[in-house]
Amino acid sequence: MQLAPMIDIVFLLLIFFIVTWQFSRSETELNVSVPTAEEGAELERPRGEIIINILADGTIRVEGLTVDRTQLLEKLSAIAKQFENQPVRIRGDGQVPYQRIVEVIDTCQKAGIWNISFATQRPSPDQ
Fold first, then answer.
1. Residues 60-117 pLDDT 10s
2. Which of 53, 60, 67, 116 is deepest in the core (most CB within 10 A)?
3. Number of structural domains, the chain?
4. Rounded CA separation 91/33 (Å)
5. Is 10 within a domain?
6. Is 123 within the bounds of a domain?
7. CATH number at residue 26
8. At residue 24, does pLDDT exceed 60?
């Protein structure tokens, strides 16, 4: 039995998983400190979910790009036309004014997206 083809396939699979892991990791901004919540569902992330990050200064980032509300509306409208019941997760920093979060929710609804969830984290045990 030849091992060279099997080793090639193993390396290709390894590269595939490393690349896809990096893409999913880049969607969540590391400098967003989401609010804490005692309760909440620990659901697995739905396939194709769009993550909208709202930084502490109110900046909106989607797929690693900074967008304004108009650009967000265009992007979400195009996606909503293609995919019915498109899931969106809003990761708003705990310091962001509530009005900014409401503006993003309003933009999602204008685009025809109603499947919206919010990212939270569990409080640390020492609190």
1. 998 888 999 999 999 999 999 998 888 999 988 888 888 998 999 999 999 999 888 8
2. 53
3. 1
4. 8
5. yes
6. no
7. 3.30.420.270
8. no
For 2-7, what is the mean pLDDT? 89
The answer to whether residue 90 sits within a structural domain is yes
d(CA 86, CA 70): 19
Beta carbons of 91 and 34 less than 8 angstroms apart: yes
CB count, 10 Å around CB of 88?
23
Q: Is residue 125 part of a domain?
A: no
Cβ neighbors of 45 (< 8 A, separation 6 or more) are: 89
Give the β-pairing of 60-62 and 65-67: antiparallel
The whole-angstrom separation of Cα 117 and Cα 52 is 10
**What is the DSSP secondary structure assignment for residue 46, as one 8-state letter?**
P
CA-wise closest residue to 60 among 112, 102, 111: 102
Q: Give the domain range for residue 70.
A: 4-118
Burial of 62 (0-12, 13-18, 19+ CB in 10 A): middle
User: Chain-wide mean pLDDT for the chain?
Assistant: 81
